[in-house]
């Protein structure tokens, strides 16, 4: 269009689309403008929430300008892009982060305060975007922040759920779930693209024909279809003009489809079908590290991957390149097996619709995709029943069987006559009914497979993907240790510490180059600096104490040692072991004389995290924690020596308060079960020490910060199988201290003991799969070391500083660079501030 316009028109557009200025007055005007027009409110008649809405809308204007500029310049440059496919993006709040990343927090705060509001209160009015369960979803959010900050051309693709992860309330000590209808007051952080509407088919049958050259052609005729509508979420980088995008899809009924039923005279059915269509993106499945196998979940996966691929291919087609160039323009990262259908869908589109040969198409597919595995837990492995799959996606099933056949033929060629091997490696599990193993499909369809920490990447090569390593060779299987964004997890969550670091290092370059934190090491011996450091920790503890008072109605002293375990509740994460130790500690204190008590280190033990609604044992752990808290917190014999709290509804914004306030945090999974963990990194980055097992990223944290600054206990990953074997077959007695604790529960010290029988059975009848008894003695010892170390506050402060100073490796910037260089083969492109928007 622009080319056809006369020069004056083009100039007029350029002049009128000059970007908003960012001075105080312009910003205040824009806030008030949104108050009086967008919100239609009187300027003075406002509460914190409407102030938040107006500030959010004003911030969003600036985000969208950057977004537009970035996407316009990228369209012209047309570089290779990466697409990060994730069913979860656990973003949390956006406003504070957007303002900090764009460098506008100061001026906005000033503007807001002058308008009569407190910026903190305004920020806290925002509800979290909680479109994720835990680590996997938050990792995707951290990676989006780093990709934007490092100027990588990257888009995320996900689903726009109407309901995020449920809200947790504690009633009578039990978890109860409430729907998280987060869109109630509209979402200023998204841009609806109602014009981008993609038809997605389901069901039906496959038509097979011969084309004019005698080649067999397959044509999928779906029985029905829904529309995918795009919602764009801008992701601003820190200290750059670059602004990336997360495109989230929402399902809507297709009008054409409605009319078919309608024309058949079945009005009610057509409305009913329309409701079914909307259901697809209604709710995030609340399972973490487990697979539920629900049909609607499979629909979600196909809906999302098909819409995303359609969009990606449409963008590629604009460049008029050959299909063989596709992998040079497009990298697609599969965040776990959830988007594995994208492999099949791309093969289908290339073969059935673009008429490529099977082999040419498959070459393109496998050069495009790479796959991240996040867990080795068997209950988390995605499998889909073949009959259900065939009913929803008949053509895709044929393609999967073909992929499998061609793959197994090659395996047979390389390792002849090994039927056991073919059985183990097959994408199809021969069960009743047959099951599709999504992890196998993801490995076969990708050019790189990665684990998320060194130990985990090693383990997957030895266990679930062992045969595949033998077949493909080592090079296909790589490690990409997880990382976290220092912008949210230090700069935003811990502003005082961030300011102290910047002041100490003389600049804020560490925010983009985290290894600069090493410079703090020099300050360890400086008593004045340690005093400042410790004072900030204390302020953060006061802030958490206030949250605990509000949410749990328990008073805790910020002078006690704050001991924190916040993460999803799961047997492998062993919150159970933690609370059993708390009981042990309680019993020990109770048995002490007053003189002995005087030397006990006071502790506040904080728990937080959600259990999957159907995870009975995990929910009993929550109940036990709350029952122990009820008894301990009101026991005058204990007083301030021990407090126990369960903070309800743990989420990203609560984490931002909890993480900076820890003295010690617990990362105590049975060795070999936690793929990486990322909250461990957040705590240590904020100068909190950790107590942990030799599992996941704990091992690499230990390597970076040194063994004097971390409390390690428990068995090693390669000892686990022998220990399990011994417990099963050799009548190993339960650890005596643990036995004492269990007896106390069984005597009814903490509510009716009958409640806990199924939980206790996991240690006895269940043969203690997660090895709580085997690790208990060393866990007690490690806790004693923590107490002893904390007594020397000066030494503790030194450890704390050394922790932060040596966490450079765990920036998600490092992780994302490794992916970009070694897997995606993409380069950064910096966005130039042209001062106006491209017409
Ligand atoms: N993870 O959060 C999930 N959900 C799953 O279903 C499987 C794994 C977690 O992913 C994180 C990011 O890689 C890891 O740090 C964590 O160990 C793992 O449990």
For this entry, give a set of tags.
6-stranded parallel β-sheet; pyridoxal phosphate; binds 1-beta-D-glucopyranosylpyrimidine-2,4(1H,3H)-dione; Rossmann fold; 3 domains; 839 residues; 9-stranded mixed β-sheet; 16% strand; globular; alpha/beta; glycogen phosphorylase activity
Written overview of the protein:
By secondary structure, the protein is an alpha/beta fold. The chain has three domains: 1-77 and 94-127, no CATH class; 78-93 and 128-479, 3-Layer(aba) Sandwich (Rossmann fold), CATH 3.40.50; 543-801, Rossmann fold, CATH 3.40.50. The chain is 48% helix and 16% strand. It has a nine-stranded mixed β-sheet with strand order 7-10-11-4-1-12-13-17-18, with helices on both faces. It has a six-stranded parallel β-sheet with strand order 21-20-19-22-23-24, sandwiched between helices. It has a three-stranded antiparallel β-sheet with strand order 14-16-15. The longest helix has 30 residues, at 48-77. The chain is globular and about 95 Å long. The chain starts with 6 loop residues before the first helix and ends in a 15-residue tail after the last helix. 1-beta-D-glucopyranosylpyrimidine-2,4(1H,3H)-dione binds next to helix 7. InterPro entries: Glycg_phsphrylas, Glyco_trans_35, Pyridoxal_P_attach_site. It holds the Pfam family Phosphorylase.
């Amino acid at each position: 269009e622009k080319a056809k316009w006369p020069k004056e028109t083009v100039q007029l557009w350029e002049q009128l689309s000059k970007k908003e200025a960012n001075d105080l007055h312009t910003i205040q005007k824009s806030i008030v403008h949104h108050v009086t027009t967008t919100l239609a409110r009187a300027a003075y008649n406002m509460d914190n929430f409407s102030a938040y809405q107006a500030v959010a809308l004003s911030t969003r204007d600036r985000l969208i300008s950057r977004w537009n500029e970035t996407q316009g310049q990228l369209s012209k440059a047309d570089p290779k892009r990466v697409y990060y496919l994730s069913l979860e993006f656990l973003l949390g709040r956006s406003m504070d982060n957007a303002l900090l990343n764009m460098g506008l927090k100061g001026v906005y705060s000033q503007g807001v305060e002058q308008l009569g509001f407190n910026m903190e209160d305004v920020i806290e009015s925002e509800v979290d975007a909680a479109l994720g369960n835990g680590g996997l979803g938050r990792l995707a959010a951290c990676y989006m922040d780093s990709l934007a900050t490092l100027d990588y051309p990257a888009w995320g693709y996900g689903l726009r759920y109407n309901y995020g992860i449920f809200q947790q309330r504690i009633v009578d000590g039990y978890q109860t779930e409430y729907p998280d209808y987060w869109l109630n007051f509209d979402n200023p952080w998204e841009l609806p693209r109602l014009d981008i509407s993609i038809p997605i088919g389901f069901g039906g049958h496959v038509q097979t024909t011969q084309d004019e050259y005698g080649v067999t052609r397959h044509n999928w005729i779906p029985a029905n279809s829904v529309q995918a509508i795009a919602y764009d979420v801008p992701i601003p980088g820190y200290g750059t003009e670059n602004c990336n995008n997360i495109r989230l899809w929402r399902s809507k009924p297709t009008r054409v489809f409605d009319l078919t039923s309608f024309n058949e005279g079945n009005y009610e059915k057509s409305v009913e079908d329309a409701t079914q269509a909307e259901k697809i993106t209604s709710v995030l499945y609340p399972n973490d590290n487990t697979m539920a196998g629900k049909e609607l979940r499979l629909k979600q996966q196909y809906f999302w991957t098909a819409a995303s691929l359609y969009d990606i291919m449409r963008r590629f087609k604009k460049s008029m390149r050959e299909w063989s160039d596709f992998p040079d323009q497009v990298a697609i990262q599969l965040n776990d097996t959830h988007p594995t259908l994208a492999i099949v869908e791309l093969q289908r589109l290339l073969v059935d619709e673009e008429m490529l040969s099977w082999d040419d198409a498959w070459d393109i597919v496998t050069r495009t995709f790479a796959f991240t595995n996040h867990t080795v837990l068997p209950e988390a492995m995605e499998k889909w029943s073949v009959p259900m799959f065939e009913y929803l996606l008949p053509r895709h099933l044929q393609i999967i069987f073909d992929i499998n056949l061609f793959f197994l033929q090659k395996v047979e060629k390389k390792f002849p006559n090994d039927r056991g091997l073919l059985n183990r490696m097959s994408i199809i599990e021969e069960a009743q009914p047959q099951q599709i193993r999504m992890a196998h499909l993801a490995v076969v369809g990708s050019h790189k497979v990665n684990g998320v920490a060194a130990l985990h990447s090693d383990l997957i090569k030895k266990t679930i993907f062992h045969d595949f390593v033998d077949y493909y060779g080592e090079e296909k299987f790589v490690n990409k240790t997880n990382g976290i964004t220092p912008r949210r997890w230090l700069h935003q969550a811990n502003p005082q510490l961030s300011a102290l670091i910047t002041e100490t290092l003389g600049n804020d370059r560490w925010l983009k180059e985290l290894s600069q934190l090493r410079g703090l090491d020099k300050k360890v011996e400086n008593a004045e600096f340690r005093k400042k450091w410790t004072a900030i920790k204390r302020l953060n503890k006061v802030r958490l104490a206030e949250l605990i008072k509000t949410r749990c109605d328990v008073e805790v002293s910020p002078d006690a040692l704050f001991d924190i375990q916040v993460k999803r509740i799961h047997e492998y994460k062993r919150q159970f072991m933690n609370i059993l130790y708390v009981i042990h500690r309680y019993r020990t204190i109770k048995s002490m004389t007053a003189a002995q008590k005087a030397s006990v280190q006071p502790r506040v033990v904080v728990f937080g995290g959600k259990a999957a609604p159907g995870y009975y044992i995990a929910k009993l752990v929550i109940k036990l924690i709350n029952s122990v808290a009820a008894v301990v917190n009101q026991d005058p014999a204990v007083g301030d020596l021990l407090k126990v709290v369960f903070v309800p509804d743990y989420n990203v914004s609560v984490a931002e308060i909890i993480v900076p306030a820890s003295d010690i945090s617990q990362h105590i999974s049975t060795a070999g079960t936690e793929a990486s963990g990322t909250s461990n990194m957040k705590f240590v980055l904020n100068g909190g020490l950790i107590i942990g097992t030799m599992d996941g990223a704990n091992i690499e944290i230990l390597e970076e910060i040194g063994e004097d600054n971390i409390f390690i206990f428990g068995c090693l990953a390669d000892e686990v199988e022998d220990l399990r074997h011994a417990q099963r077959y050799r009548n190993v007695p339960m650890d005596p201290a643990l036995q004492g604790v269990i007896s106390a529960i069984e005597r009814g010290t903490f509510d009716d003991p009958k409640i806990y029988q199924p939980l206790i059975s996991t240690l006895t009848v269940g043969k203690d799969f997660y090895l709580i008894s085997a690790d208990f003695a060393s866990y007690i010892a490690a806790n004693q070391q923590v107490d002893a170390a904390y007594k020397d506050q000066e030494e503790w402060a030194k450890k704390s500083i050394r922790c932060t100073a040596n966490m450079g490796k765990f920036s998600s910037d490092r992780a994302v660079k490794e992916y970009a260089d070694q897997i995606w083969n993409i380069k950064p492109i910096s966005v130039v501030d042209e001062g106006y928007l491209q017409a």
